[in-house]
Give the backbone structure.
Amino acid sequence: MSKVDVVVGCFYGDEGKGKVIDYLAADADIAVRATGGDNAGHTIKVDGVKYAMRLIPSGILSGHTVGLIGNGVVLNPKVLMDEIANLTAHGYDVGRYLKLSEKAHVILPYHRMMDRALENTRKAKIGTTGKGIGPAYCDKYERSGLRVEELYAPGFRDRLKTLVEAKKALLKFYHPQEEDLDDTLNFESIYDAYSAYAQQLKPYVCDAVTYLHKALEQDRKVVVEGAQATLLDIDFGSYPFVTSSNPTIGGILTGTGLSPLDIGNVYGVIKAYSSRVGEGPYVTELTDATGDRIRELGHEYGTTTGRPRRCGWLDLVALKYAKRVNGLTALSVNHLDTVGKFDKIKICVAYDCEGTITEDFTTNLDVLNRARPVYKEFAGSFGDLSGCRTFEELPRAAREYIGFIEQYVGIPVRFIGTGAEREAMLVRDKQRTIC
Ligand code: GDP
Ligand code: IMO
Ligand code: MG
């Protein structure tokens, strides 16, 4: 039976997961999204066209891969409809290649309102994307969420009415001065809009667990596109400065219905530097001109919100943690071209926690906020990498940089990004061990 390859982010998101999935999709029948919602933004450049994928797995861009939205996703139907329209306009046969789990949870207008209301009341802001992700997951676990399949149930209207009225009361509590809540959360308008979405989405809805397992039994190739990343994980990230799902390997299983035995390679994606959008600790953050230069060279502005991303050097302490938590079998290092524009490049190899040197990551905020990076310096100035088609063609300094990452973490770097375009990726032998 065919094994499933999984792609997960190792740091704070935006490592270039979409680009890796896009590559793997060339040989895949199905690409699955397991967690998160339209807080994700996965950018892929195909033939000069830039696609910012929020809900539909990037694998669909191959033109022959089914994009399956799994049960672990929280789905804003409006965003999905816009994405379908955009892909259709670019010639993709979405009707044939999109599938949606009946168990995915639906984001309703009050989730976004709650997200913003909660963020406004927080003294220490999380910097959420404002897409309603946290409140939608809250409702899921509190058992007052709405699954896709319920859009078609006979009691849908009554159920929606109960949910909307309950949330209205809650929002009034947060916004006692808000007078037009009856307009903004007008039940009839929400019912009409979501009834229309239900009809539009119907052709895509399926029993995704059965669909996936039957595909595997028929030896079809499945890949999973992780969203968000390890340090944004609700359990393993820098809580509370995290998202509300488990983007790590456990969430991949519960968000799809795959079993641990189904999993083959787990690819961890990093950039050759690091970035974070939103609040929270970030040990290797550079708040100086070097950080600004990374942001400009790497075009580090959020795909989803347009916010400038915080930037810094690569953090191998965090990467080793991501390897442990996810069981990474190999790495993808993107933006080697970007980091190679610096004369000297630094990599964080340990944390100095008030005199105690450690290579073990912690999610304890107190320790993280005080930790200082211990750096090792590497030669940069890699030059133009666009002509390099194999690892061996990379300049020596670039090979040494990659080799050090492999040695430190103890797993091979299989993919190396040398540009934003689909073709700008070096792929190394699957069987090889580390340098
Ligand atoms: P994701 O959320 O992990 O899929 O990543 P994003 O799409 O949010 O952010 C990654 C950004 O880096 C996108 O703008 C990509 O086009 C770009 N990118 C990915 N790999 C490379 C690379 O190797 N070099 C350069 N210069 N850009 C890259
Ligand atoms: P991709 O898949 C980067 C961050 C937000 C915020 C925190 C919580 O593109 O890598 P949320 O709206 O999820 O409640 O916000 O998580 N965040 C991301 N940062 N990339 C993402 O996705 C993110 N998804 C959420 O900025 O700090
Ligand atoms: Mg992104």
About this structure: The chain has a mean pLDDT of 95. The two ends are 31 Å apart (CA to CA). The chain has three domains: 4-101+205-263, 105-200, 269-427. The first helix runs from residue 17 to 24.
